[in-house]
Amino acid sequence: MAHNKYGIVSIIVPAHNAELTLNRAVESVYRQNTEEFEVIIINDGSTDNTASICNELSSKDTRIKVIHREKAGGVSSARNLGIDSASGDYIAFLDSDDYLADDFLGYAVEEIIKNDLDVWVGTSIRLVNGVEKGRNEVWENFSGYGDEVSEHQIIMSKWAMCPVYAKVFKRSAIGDIRLDENMEFAEDVKFCLDVVFKQHIKYGMYRRIAYYYLFTGTGLASKITRKRYEGSVIYYHNRIEYGNKRNFPQDGEYFTDVYNGMLGTVRLCENQILHSKRPLKERQELWDVFLKDSAVAELLKKKGSFAHRHPILWRVNDVKIKLGIKPKGSKE
After folding, report:
1. What is the pTM of this model?
2. In sequence order, which residues have a C-beta less than 8 Å from that of residue 47 and are 6 or more positions away?
3. Are the C-beta atoms of residues 6 and 110 closer than 8 Å to each other?
4. Whole-angstrom Cα distance, residue 279 to residue 82?
């Protein structure tokens, strides 16, 4: 294992009831090709044996620091606490049920130094029962400034850019930016967009596996909550804001991708809401997240463009009818 002469990497690990997986996550840090790291584990109100495992790990290695919280504050709050507590020159994120690819941290830091990058981005592998089922993949190696890269480069890199993991950030690039603790969905995506695309910083995309994400289907992304739906809306508002700031054409590659994503999200949520066993009033309130959203409303006004080619308006009205939502001004 080599020494990293360029500085310390702070690896932030939120852990909630992670007694079965935390050791594996930390062991993957030891398989990196650098000894210059600190692991910050935030025990986020765990009720199992996570606290004892954290204490045992830290007692064996002074590079492992543990922060215990009696009450769970959520993954975004835990990550923010980790950022605030980090002393490293670089920051990486690792969830307690995932693990890092071997030898990627040292390589990433060396590339950051060699190419004067602020953020290094790699590929993550999604595992289901130990079998690869998908990738957030970098399609081509390139580097550029987040507020200058082309529409095509953004589209080609968006899936790798979305999660907070499989990246190494210069601490200076993060600065005062933090994850939105009020969001339950896509909060890490918003964080990455804020860091990479809303500042004049240089990022590099690498076709190198950096991270293994274990998909269980029990996380927040699989749950039906108003905050989850609101988080997806905030995500698209951020993408629209960025596209407008860059003056991308409404009928171009970037906005077509944004609107396709919005349509896909609406369809997914439509299916969840219509098949939910929740009371009708709750389902109506969930659908209201989209009915009352300005971005969705604006999309529906785009006659002759995206909304005309993709009949999202029909689907919105169809769901309104199925849920018994009365049109404005209608009589009982």
Report:
1. 0.84
2. 17
3. yes
4. 39
